[in-house]
Specification:
The chain is mostly helical. It contains 3 helices and no strands.
């Protein structure tokens, strides 16, 4: 999961939390269409994060050099 995906997932989960707080307070009638869209977006982002391949390091040659160095010591 890259940084942008992580930020988007965090935002959508915060929005879902806000909906939950509004529903428990009972101040206004729930906007079910909006809640449904926001929850679906959170589920989609979470699903994408779980099923997407793990990003590779930006500089694999550095990682290889580091692992070679740590094995020899």
């Amino acid at each position: 999961m890259n940084h942008a995906q992580l930020i988007a997932l965090g935002r959508s989960l915060r929005v879902a939390d806000e909906h939950g707080q509004r529903l428990t307070e009972g101040d206004a009638p729930p906007a079910t269409e909006e809640i449904s869209r926001d929850l679906q977006r959170a589920v989609d982002l979470l699903s994408e994060a779980v099923t997407a391949p793990r990003p590779s390091p930006a500089a694999p040659s550095i990682q290889q050099a580091w692992s070679t160095r740590t094995r020899s010591t």
